[in-house]
Amino acid sequence: MTPAAAPAGAKGLGAAGKVPRHVAIIMDGNGRWAQQRGLPRAAGHKAGAEAVRRALQAAADQGVEVLTLYAFSSENWRRSDEEISDLTALMRFYLERELKTLEKERVKLKLIGDHSAFGAELVERLDRAIERTSSNTRLTLVIALNYGSRAEIASAARRLAQRAVDSEIEPAAIDEAAIAAELQTNDLPELDLLIRTSGEVRLSNFLLWQAAYAELLFLDVLWPDFDEAAFAGALQTYAARNRRFGGR
Ligand code: IPE
Ligand code: IPE
Ligand code: MG
Q1: Catalytic residue status for 81
Q2: What is the pTM of this model?
Q3: What is the C-alpha separation between 2 and 108, in angstroms, rounded?
Q4: What is the pLDDT of residues 210-238, one digit of tens each?
Q5: 29 C-alpha vs ligand 1 centroid, how far in Å?
Q6: What homologous superfamily is domain 22-238 in, according to CATH?
């Protein structure tokens, strides 16, 4: 688990810079952004969707391999029906509009969480976007939708227990690698950098296992104000950190 060297041709950090292979973002603060402007929360989510486009472009330009975005947590169902339907409508709209961008920029879309809860039309569009972008290799965009880290770990434990009951594996063979292999992130590189916007300092049930040795960065900026400069700044902060992984 050593930090990745900058890929050839990566812009922004210079030859000596360390570009994180896998960056995840808890995109928080849409509601407060709207509130500060006297606007409905939906306006904050709309502005937040524009920030997603900027972050995606910045990640691709900087040579990041995987960008994982927390878009909807399994706890976000506690919000009003109106807000949930606004968010669903926005996702449908942006997916349709941005599919061409994903194809043009050679971005592969992947989902974690259980997106089947979102209604047939959105599910179909999501599945189509995944299929249409499946051979892209420049950047993997992972959207966490109806995602909860504890549920993901519990489901991994359940599957391993079942395999032990079925005598396919020995309980003693259940090690860290076996659990990691059952997580939805099993095909992704280790998480290097986890960013949360909005000033809140918590993980809100996001990538708890995967963040074991990630660098954490909590920013005061509200998500709709997050731009290319903020992304570049986050990568500079990361490059200046000293990752020790328990060594000295
Ligand atoms: C993040 O912004 C977007 C989602 C959780 C979908 P919030 O809606 O949580 O914004 P705040 O935290 O209320 O400002
Ligand atoms: C975390 O933000 C979830 C997403 C950004 C999608 P929340 O706004 O839901 O988290 P809490 O409730 O402040 O912990
Ligand atoms: Mg919030």
Answers
A1: no
A2: 0.94
A3: 25
A4: 999 999 999 999 999 999 999 999 999 99
A5: 5
A6: Decaprenyl diphosphate synthase-like (3.40.1180.10)
